What does this fold into?
Amino acid sequence: MVQIRASQVFTHSIDDAVAAKKALDADELFKDVVEKYSTCPSKQQGGDLGWMPEEAALSLMGEEITNDKINKIIGPVHSEYGYHILLITEVKVENLEVQSLDLNVITPEELNNRLSGGGSNLILLDLRESWEWDIAHIEGAQLITRENSASILSDLQKDAELILIDWKQDRSPSFVKWLVQQGFSYAKCLEGGIDAWSDKIDPSLARYEIESDDGYRYEDIIEEGSEDNDSHQHSH
It folds into this structure.
């Protein structure tokens, strides 16, 4: 599995995109161009978008990314969101079986940058209970439950980039492992869950506490899915 790390200048203005590219061609520092022209929240991190799978990078950049593209400028690239100028900073090849834990987590800041910058087909799956969802949820996320999990997962491509959201990253790690076992290549936990998102990104979302989180656990869906698979196997 190939992972790409990139930084970007993002703008809705074609004039700003052209001006930014001219500045880069004149050897102006990328971080300075980001600060001057980018409208993406990633400008607070010098334009860094964090790690993304190869498919997401290909969708955004329109070309295959290899090691020889490191430190190369790509773009401006026009997407449905606006104009992107991208700098490839790292390329990493990972074996799924020995994939490092840090690539299985996305920080609230990285997720916000990806969502705000556009050009990546992230799928947000919320693992919490419905009453938690009613209190606060991220726009565009899907609530996945025991009742709808089979339907939702069956509609997803195995190489879809899945972001799992729970309360405080208490339930998602085990489900990430389970999804990888089911053949999904890219599944990540939102670091700190919805609580961290409310704290760091969107203070308008209500935060809440759970005195005893011993009721619904997402492992129930994992176990139920395993039982369904067993019953299908016995039926043949």
Notes: The beta strands are 2-11, 48-53, 73-78, 83-93, 105-106, 122-126, 142-143, 161-165, 186-190. The longest strand covers residues 83-93. The chain has two domains: 2-96, 121-235.
